[in-house]
Amino acid sequence: MEIEMNRIALALAVTLSLALPAAAQSLTVLLPSLSFPTEPVTPSTKGCEAPAAGTTCQLPE
């Protein structure tokens, strides 16, 4: 029983020593920074067959 406890304690110590450097980093290092466009987004009309005077388009089948 004592040998098993020593093994568990050693495994826990090794695990914590490997995990500490990753836990010490801040979230700004670990996560990518996201940026969003500020200009208005327009929908794509690629593949649409729209009449010249219409504002909506029908996708070809």
TrEMBL record:
Location of the region described as Disordered in the Swiss-Prot/TrEMBL record: 40-61
Annotated protein name in UniProt: Porin
Taxonomic lineage of the native organism: Bacteria, Pseudomonadati, Pseudomonadota, Alphaproteobacteria, Rhodobacterales
